[in-house]
Amino acid sequence: MQAAATALLVLSQVAATSCIGLRNLTSSPQETIDNTRPVGNNIISHDHTFTTEFLGLQLANNSASHRDLGFTGQLGGQWYAVYGDVLWCAPGVKDPAQDPPGFHGMVRDAISLCTDNPLVVHDLHLDSEGRQQQFVPYNEEWGEAADFGFGGTSLVEVDGETNTGALFYLINGNKTGYRGAGIAKVQLVDGAPTVTHRSGDRGYWWDANTTARYGDIAAFRDPRSDYVYAWGGAPMNITDWVQAAYVYQCRVKAADAFDITRYEYWWGRQMGWKSEPPATFTAETAVMWMSGQGQVVWNQHLGCYVFVRLGPMTNEVLLRTAPQHEGPWSDDVKVFNATPIGQDGMTYAGVAHPYLDPSGRSMVISYTNNNNIEVIRVTFDE
Hints:
Blueprint: H1 5-14, H2 20-26, H3 43-47, E1 50-57, E2 59-60, E3 65-75, E4 78-88, E5 106-107, E6 110-114, E7 120-123, E8 149-159, E9 164-172, E10 178-189, E11 192-198, E12 206-207, E13 213-221, E14 227-233, H4 241-244, E15 246-253, E16 264-266, E17 273-274, E18 288-289, E19 294-299, E20 304-310, E21 316-322, E22 333-337, E23 347-352, E24 362-369, E25 373-380
Parallel strand pairs: 2-7
Antiparallel strand pairs: 1-25, 3-4, 4-5, 4-6, 6-7, 8-9, 9-10, 10-11, 10-12, 13-14, 14-15, 15-16, 15-18, 16-17, 19-20, 20-21, 21-22, 23-24, 24-25
């Protein structure tokens, strides 16, 4: 069974240690500016109290499979979840819990329609046997194959009039490693979000070996501006584990999402936004450190941006807050402690479901637990 490409990447980055204090000992002594450290108070812990309720497992009402990720995004007035590895259940199985042992086939990513019940989704793009099909198509002319991963983060709407969206993804060549981060155009075809174009000569823009992998950590369509924001991990040619765990940020106006020349890149609070990607990958030009995959949302009740994530190797569901996308981000507040399923179970990929409570008084959050999607609800005080 294969975990999502990006989840494995995050775990490999933190294998050396999860102790943030060790970063202080291994960082370069010449490094005097660190824009990734927490600043200020977390609004959640400082100004609010909260309660957390475990809701259960998320399942599809028309298909059966084991899956991970499930990052949410809006298109054409509906909300959808984009999953990573989707492992089909055996033929005839309707409940994943009843799936017999063994491998029954899979696709590397898929999309489902969200419902008003956080525990129920409606799977899209089913074949004649009721199995979900690949969402981001692989292209053999680019040397891609069926086992290539396309770890996708949130679907973001870029043109509401034409119901056009964009999906950021990281291409995992499997045996050949990570190729690059890219963006796909998504349009409604027969009522279902469908990838109609992948940008870049070989399906990606940002080379994974030399450029930050923009979008593999998170992607977000800001409802309070014209911008789409994306966060990505450091280039793969960085071998130092501290430097490899930094997270970088880019943005683009939604209308220009498919024009690589219109993107801007965050170079840190001292230098701001620039039209070219950072030339150095340090704590100064980064925006976060060792975040893992997650999701950013604007919370009306809290009056701030919230980043939902899971702590590396700790099974903790964490929330951090910031007044703006560039940060500075606060420290994390733990809202739940997940229990891994199975002896080798992994928990990762925090996902927000803001459509379930636009007021922000409560936040429904899902996460992956050993290829199962578990769901909790966090409710804040008045």
